[in-house]
Design a protein that fits this description.
Blueprint lengths: L1 H17 L7 E3 L5 E3 L13 H34 L3 H11 L1 H6 L43 H4 L13 H4 L22 H14 L4 H14 L2 H14 L6 H13 L3 H14 L4 H14 L2 H14 L4 H53 L4 H7 L6 H8 L5 E5 L5 E5 L3 H39 L9 H9 L36 H7 L23 H4 L34 H7 L10 H5 L7 H14 L4 H15 L2 H14 L6 H13 L3 H14 L4 H13 L3 H14 L7 H17 L8 H5 L20 H13 L3
Antiparallel strand pairs: 1-2, 3-4
Helix pairs in contact: 2-14, 3-14, 7-8, 8-9, 8-10, 9-10, 10-11, 10-12, 11-12, 12-13, 12-14, 13-14, 14-17, 23-24, 24-25, 25-26, 26-27, 26-28, 27-28, 28-29, 29-30
Length: about 800
């Protein structure tokens, strides 16, 4: 029994010993000296340098830990990449297996959504063939064409949608020849003869809505949208209410063919209101909504059409093609997001690789060179002996020389071999990064192509048409502020509020309230909106892109990605901040109300697409749109993407508005725990504009974290003096908490801070003196006046 117990103990100790791994850095020479091995990190140029000796172990441990992280991350990246399908694979699989795609038989981009749809009314009850009066028309002589303007003067009518911009500018409309409408004419009809007959019919009865509608069809076949609209307008006015849907269908088709699909939808809705049981109107409206990218409404229109006319194959095929396209869009959008996440992980991995190499270089820099080591030991070791020692380490030595003996060694240590392998891995990672970026770009191009449908040569969506119609020069006025700053000519003065009193708050009040003082050290995200400078950002994502607040942007919705800058300004965005910002972090959801305020009842993802559309359309100053994009990414919980946008904003922002991006960068630095960096950045923002409550509030938060409650209280009071209701009262609550904390710590009345004495001081200490609030810069008033004068030039 004792032997069994002893054996168990022995095996346990043996297992523990097997689990121990160690590296020998020291050897004992023949003369009894203890020294480091040849390839040890402790083999230094200056072995007597204690601090360098101690740093080497730190470098070695950091490299080992970083390498383990890299191995784990690379394995995760490989798994993600292996599980991703390419865009081509997704598309092929969907079109070969999905029921809707199989029923559609063709892709949506291959379906003509501008197919001509009209009706001449001949099948409607109450319309007889004799009403057309196309018989007995002279065929000799010069052929006439229907001139509706001359036959029936009509300047204005409430029934003809004169408020629509396309209708007002109908002389400038262009469209293709609609040869497809010939099929609605009697077989064998000569187009010139058809126009001649209509012209004579109008001479007999210039108010015949049937002839006016036929005249509009004639001009559509000819590709003359202006004359077609003139005839359509008159047909609408003269048609009885029970037939008015027919010329409305014709007129809506004209605007749709002229690439004004949004206004065509308005007219077609009116046609359906007059005759909700006519299938052609629903079919035409479905095509219009499909072109506009509003697939949900388009499918509803096709369903209505099929209920009224179950044999309408055109509606059925287009409906299934749209359902197929929606599924493809969802798959590709999901794949696109996965690729974006993979890109972020690859960026982080490459940064770790660079950091690893930097640490390796710093560690190797202080090591003794192999040649100096060999020279020092040449009296002890012979060539063969040294060569045998190095044989197992990928090293070899040989003796050369003419006269003098020179020992030359080709040395490749374990760390150097690892560095070489890592350099190869960087090359592989960069190749993978390019593959991922290429795949994401292909998906983006595919989605844009799918969304634009047949309108790649013309504008299809209402927003794009609006942007092109106005042209880039129309947005020049929005490159600067269009209104006065929110705190225009504002001067901070001491008021009569409760917190301005000498003994506020009372110690008894502090004890009675039992304030949770620790809550003031929590992170509070801060975003200085460009609206404070007079920029109408709400217009940038609504009217200037042609999509009002009550409307919905066409699908698909993409996030407002900012191109990664070639380099970051390390004064504001140092490597430490970038490293801390990689990957997903907690979202700054408390800022979401700012984006929601731009577009009423819109989802954050839709607002992101609106920002992207505004950026591509160049409707406003690029730095302002980059600020909106950075806000989106902060709300999404991706500060690295936000920093990409903020660097773009820094590149183009005028100096007088530089505090806007700086406050956001300082707030992200605060979130990353880089308090000193955040204070330096927000100090520069404060020197640009010392009135902004966002800046003063952030300074107050940061000074409190540094233990400077006096300075924090001062800047929180400055915040409330400008905006008494800051954060719906949270600013006052935080001020009371800090003031109580000071009073309870000092057990004496807190000294009220006078803004007057501080604003007149010429002392400018900045954040370097952590025991004082940031001082007002000298001649601040004159600087403010200069800013006001500059701003007024935009108003």
């Amino acid at each position: 029994m004792a032997k069994i117990d002893f054996l168990k103990i022995f095996l346990t100790l043996f297992e523990v010993i097997l689990g121990i791994s160690a590296t020998t850095h020291w050897v004992v020479t023949e003369d009894g000296r203890i020294q480091s091995q040849l390839d040890s990190v402790f083999q230094l140029h200056q072995p007597y340098d204690l601090f360098t000796f101690l740093e080497q172990e730190g470098y070695r441990n950091a490299i080992s830990a970083l390498y383990r992280q890299m191995v784990t991350k690379k394995a995760a990246i490989d798994r993600q990449w292996a599980n991703l399908e390419s865009a081509t694979d997704v598309e092929s699989r969907l079109f070969s297996t999905d029921p809707d795609c199989l029923l559609a038989k063709k892709k949506l981009v291959d379906i003509d959504l501008y197919a001509s749809i009209v009706t001449n009314g001949s099948f409607r009850r109450g319309v007889a063939q004799k009403d057309y009066l196309l018989d007995g028309i002279p065929t000799d002589g010069k052929k006439k064409v229907p001139d509706c303007k001359k036959i029936f003067p009509l300047d204005f009518s409430l029934y003809t949608f004169e408020h629509l911009s396309a209708m007002r500018n109908r002389k400038n409309l262009t469209q293709h020849q609609e040869k497809g409408l010939i099929k609605y004419l009697p077989p064998g009809t000569d187009l010139n003869m058809f126009g001649h007959q209509i012209a004579h019919g109008l001479l007999r009865n210039n108010t015949s809505w049937l002839h006016l509608n036929l005249a509009a069809i004639y001009w559509r076949v000819q590709g003359d949208s202006y004359n077609a609209l003139e005839c359509g307008r008159r047909a609408i006015v003269t048609a009885p209410m029970r037939y008015r849907d027919i010329p409305l269908l014709t007129t809506g088709g004209i605007l749709h063919a002229a690439k004004h699909s949004g206004e065509a939808a308005i007219i077609l809705h009116a046609a359906i209101d007059y005759a909700p049981t006519q299938s052609h109107q629903h079919l035409a409206l479905g095509h219009v909504y499909a072109v506009l990218g509003d697939f949900n409404r388009s499918i509803a229109c096709y369903d209505n059409c099929l209920r009224l006319a179950p044999t309408m194959d055109q509606a059925r095929q287009t409906k299934h093609a749209i359902l197929c396209e929606k599924k493809l869009g969802n798959y590709l959008s999901s794949l696109y997001l996965h690729l974006q996440d993979l890109l972020t992980d690859l960026d982080a991995y490459l940064s770790q690789q660079e950091e690893w190499l930097n640490l390796e270089r710093r560690m190797v820099r202080v090591q003794a060179t192999q040649s100096s080591y060999v020279k020092a030991q040449s009296a002890t070791f012979q060539n063969d002996g040294l060569n045998s020692i190095l044989a197992n380490r990928g090293q070899s030595c040989m003796q050369r020389g003419d006269g003098d003996s020179v020992l030359s060694c080709d040395v490749a240590t374990g760390s150097q071999t690892l560095a070489h392998n890592l350099q190869m891995d960087i090359t592989v990672s960069l190749r993978l990064l390019k593959d991922v970026e290429s795949q994401a770009q292909k998906i983006n191009e595919h989605m844009i192509k799918s969304n634009s449908l047949h309108a790649n040569k013309h504008l299809v969506s209402h927003s794009s048409a609006y942007t092109l119609e106005r042209g880039p020069e129309s947005f020049t006025m929005f490159m600067g502020p269009t209104g006065r700053p929110k705190y225009y000519d504002h001067e901070i003065t001491v008021g009569t509020e409760e917190y301005e009193k000498e003994n506020w708050p009372e110690i008894s009040d502090c004890k009675r309230r039992s304030l949770l003082l620790s809550s003031s050290k929590q992170y509070v995200p801060v975003y200085l909106p460009p609206e404070n400078k007079g920029f109408a950002t709400q217009l940038f994502v609504t009217e200037l892109i042609g999509i009002n607040s009550g409307q919905e942007h066409s699908l698909p919705w993409y996030p407002p990605n900012c191109q990664t800058p070639k380099s970051f300004d390390q004064k504001y965005i140092p490597p430490a901040l970038l490293t801390a910002s990689f990957g997903n972090r907690l979202a700054d959801s408390s800022l979401s109300h700012i984006l929601n305020g731009l577009v009423k009842d819109a989802e954050i993802t839709e607002i992101g697409q609106r920002i992207l559309t505004a950026t591509k359309s160049k409707v406003a100053a690029p730095w302002v749109l980059s600020m909106l994009a950075s806000l989106y990414w902060r709300i999404a919980g991706k500060p690295k993407n936000a920093l990409d946008c903020l660097q773009l904003a820094l590149d183009t922002v005028p100096n007088k508005f530089k505090d806007v991006p700086l406050v956001s960068i300082a707030s992200i630095s605060h979130k990353a725990g880089l308090i000193d960096d955040a204070l330096k950045i927000v100090e520069e923002a404060w020197n640009t504009n010392s009135i902004e409550p966002h800046t003063n509030f952030l300074i107050g938060l940061l000074l409190h974290l540094k233990g400077n409650n006096t300075g924090a209280i001062y800047h929180l009071k400055q915040t409330l003096r400008v905006d008494p209701h800051w954060m719906d009262g949270e600013g006052l609550t935080m001020l009371r908490g800090l003031a109580c904390q000071e009073k309870l710590n000092n057990n004496q009345p807190a000294t009220s801070l006078s803004v007057t004495s501080r604003t007149t001081s010429n002392d400018q200490t900045g954040v370097k003196n952590r025991n004082e609030p940031i001082k007002q810069p000298s001649a601040d008033r004159s600087g403010l006046q200069r800013s006001v004068a500059a701003i007024m030039r935009y108003v």
